[in-house]
Amino acid sequence: QVHLVESGGGLVQAGSSLRLSCAASGRTFSSAAMCWFRQAPGKEREFVAAITCSGSSTDYADSVKGRFTISRDNAKDTVYLQMNSLKPEDAAVYYCAAGWIGFASSRRNSRSYAFWGQGTQVTVSS
Fold first, then answer.
1. What's residue 28's pLDDT?
2. What string of DSSP letters covers the chain?
3. Burial (CB count <10 Å: 0-12, 13-18, 19+), residue 97
4. In this predicted structure, what is the pLDDT of residue 79?
5. What pLDDT is attached to residue 104?
6. Cα 46 vs. chain centroid, distance in angstroms?
7. pLDDT value of position 105
8. Which among 43, 74, 98, 119 has most CB atoms closer than 10 A?
9. For residue 102, with 0-12 CB atoms within 10 Å meaning exposed, 13-18 middle and 19 or more buried, which class applies?
10. Residue 105 contacts residue 11 (beta carbons within 8 Å)
């Protein structure tokens, strides 16, 4: 089992920055690929970013590429999502997830990830 707890969400103005954190406990964090998904009201959960267990490879949705950065600190069992230049359309509940996956083929598929956090709300005012 892996227990994931997100934090760092909040209400910000468009153009601002936020850093989300996801703290993990339980099964070996450093061997899991990690990701962030988000879900806005009335919309399906969508992929945001993913990172390999070592942190050597990352992937981003086109909508956040160049603005968001995913990173991890395996010594702290934590993954981060630095979000810059936030837009109103970035508003959503953000979820982190962990999985032991084939990163190349499965990183964008939510079904690939076995463990999920409870989510943290990000609200962006225009």
1. 82
2. -EEEEEE--EEEETT--EEEEEEEEES-GGGSEEEEEEE-TTS--EEEEEE-SSSS-EEE-TTTTTTEEEEEETTTTEEEEEE-S--GGG-EEEEEEEE---HHHHTT-GGG--EE---EEEEEE-
3. buried
4. 98
5. 84
6. 10
7. 87
8. 98
9. exposed
10. no
pLDDT in tens, 8-26: 999 999 999 999 999 999 8
- DSSP-derived pairing of the beta strands 120-125 and 10-13: parallel
pLDDT at res. 27? 73
What residue ranges of the chain have pLDDT lower than 70? none
- Residues 29-41, buried b or exposed e (16+ Cβ, 10 A)? beebbbbbbbeee
Structure tokens that stand for 58 in this block: 């990352």
